[in-house]
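ZP: hey, is the fe (ii) ion complex queued? I don't see it on the tracker
AM: it wasn't, my bad. submitting now with these inputs:
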Amino acid sequence: MNKLILAAIPAAAFTGYAVYENAASLSLRYESLGSGVRIAHISDLHRRRFGRNNRRITSLIASEKPDLIFITGDIISRRQTRLNTVEKMLRELVKIAPVYVIFGNHEQGLTEEFINAEVQERLIEIIKLSGAKLLRNSRDFIIIGERRLNIIGYEPDYSVYKSDGCYTDLTPVTKADIVDVLGECPKGETLLLAHNPLFGKAYAEWGADYTFSGHVHGGIVRIFGKGILSPERKFLPKYTKGVYDFGGKKLLVSAGLGKLRLFNSPEIVIYDI
Ligand SMILES: [Fe+2]
């Protein structure tokens, strides 16, 4: 009996922690890579809600006083049809700083997998009406202080994520593929938003000074600082969370906010660059 109780204590603690992490935790991660521009980065919210209308997210970001806010895809899940919370969150975020949004595989999948084109249309409209900017293989620039920043959103071919509905024989992304879609990297400081971090080397070769990514959810379960599984069902994916350096060009990967996770708290990342 005593042995049973002794075994039940760690099991209950583990379960309690897992429930807490998936229902209540939200962390801020700070990355100091320079100074002058502060960027708040969120990714992969999926269906998760952090307080009414995601108020916990918006108030945490507001308290950090960012110059820019980046949302790097999967703001919804592909089967989601209710967009009210996303709409309200975007309307709050644009009051804080200019907001740039890209699509992840879930938003792309709405049309690519013929799931619900109407939801994608509604989401595009919601983003537009909120005042946030949706970058689908398109670009913008912004001047902050003395700096002129190119901000570019990359949306790869959907075969990067799924091929005939499966996760095998996926297409890689090379520098040439990026040039095909975006043209040569513009002169000046360039910030790229690209949902899938797997092609971090190609983004750097293309010329992006900073690439903001998500998608991998930190590897779902994190053990000894390593993410275990990718959305493509690959073990130990290369880039799961943190700052990766490619000869001075940086790949910045958020572990995201939504989906089930373990030892991998949902996060908002604050960068000073
Ligand atoms: Fe994704």
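AM: back. The first strand starts at residue 27 and ends at 32.
ZP: great, adding it to the tracker
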